[in-house]
C-alpha cells in the first residue's frame, strides 16, 4: 500500500512506497549500504527519524538480528524509533530480497508512524515485521521484553549474514533460536 510522492532524481516521477526501517538498514548499521546504494541510484529518499504510533515488540533474534513483531500494544513493547524512506518499486524489490519476504523471513505490512519531534501520523507506511509463523515464539523467547530502539548496545554481537553458519538457512536458525533456553 504505497502513496504517491515524487522522488527527485534523473528519472521521471515515480510512485513510491514509504518504508519504516528500525534495524540494520538504518544509518550507521551494517545493511545501510543498501539504502546508500538506493539513494545514490535515485531509488530512495530519507525522510527522517520517525517512531511508531503504537507500541510494538522490537527484539533481537539469532545473531542479534532485529525483529519488529506485529503484536501491537503487547505488554513489554514500546514505541519504536527508526527512519522513514520513500522507496521506488525497483528499490522495494531489492529490500524485499534482502528481507526474504518470499522465503518467509519477514513480511512487509502497514504501520503508522509519526515524526520523532512531533507532528501528524503518516499513513501508507510499511515495515518489515518478523514473519507471523515465528513471531509469537520470538516474543516469548525475548522474555516479552522489547526495545524502543535498535542502537549500538542492542546491535553488539550482531553477526553479518556472510559470517553466520552456512549449514542452516535463516528460518532454521530462527527455529533453533526460539527453541533454545540459552541466550544467543
From TrEMBL:
- Residues in Gamma-glutamylcyclotransferase AIG2-like domain copies: 19-130
Which keywords does the record carry? Answer: Acyltransferase, Transferase
Q: Please verify whether the record's keywords include Acyltransferase.
A: yes
**RNA-binding as a keyword?**
no
- Pfam families attached to this UniProt entry: GGACT
Query: GO CC terms for this protein?
Result: cytosol
Q: Where is the active site?
A: 99 (proton acceptor)
Superkingdom of the organism of origin: Eukaryota
Q: Name one GO molecular function term.
A: gamma-glutamylaminecyclotransferase activity
Q: What does this protein do?
A: Putative gamma-glutamylcyclotransferase.
Family assignment from sequence similarity: Belongs to the gamma-glutamylcyclotransferase family.
Q: What is this protein called?
A: Gamma-glutamylcyclotransferase family protein
The opening ranks of the lineage are:
Eukaryota, Viridiplantae, Streptophyta, Embryophyta, Tracheophyta
